[in-house]
Amino acid sequence: MMLFGNDPIILNMKDAEVIYFPEFFSPTEADQLYNSLLNSIAWQQDNISLFGKTHPQPRLTALYGNNEKPYTYSGIQMKPNTFSETLLDIKIKIETETHHKFTSCLCNLYRDGQDSNGWHADNEKELGTHPVIASISFGAERIFHLKHKEDNSLKQKLTLNHGSLLLMKGETQQHWLHQIPKTKKKIGKRINLTFRTIY
Predict the structure, then answer these.
(1) Total of domains in the chain
(2) Domain range spanning residue 19?
(3) Is the pTM of this model over 0.90?
């Protein structure tokens, strides 16, 4: 049963609750928000350690929140900036539509097709049990992959539109991994905002 507006799509996925809103923001709203965020977010590039080697993370990031609780993933600890007016407006719209409250937003800037985010689950302990993740996309469209942790035959593939919302909740992070893969296509910048609650 669909309980949301904006013509949502409920994905048929085992052990998961995933809802996709292709046009959560109108094209005009999305354009304005993209330009505002691109120029106002305190983007940074952290180093990430994988298999004993340290590399620059293949995207820019920033953390915002309404508390002082840090967020740690892949050996990186981020301390939150105070929510901007633009981020608060987006947060309120998401909370109104989804009936979930969020304390924090991890922002990602993919500068081109070579920026990426490898297979992972948003299952850090500070997110609690069955975290709700609200992922907003602005800018260039990117492919989003999901795969089941135990059953290799279960996979999903989505194109994340400019102005879209992807809501992941329930047992999704417990049973599924997701990624934004690299692409050789010449594409523009993409901003991704992932709202979550840090306890």
Answers:
(1) 1
(2) 9-41+55-196
(3) yes
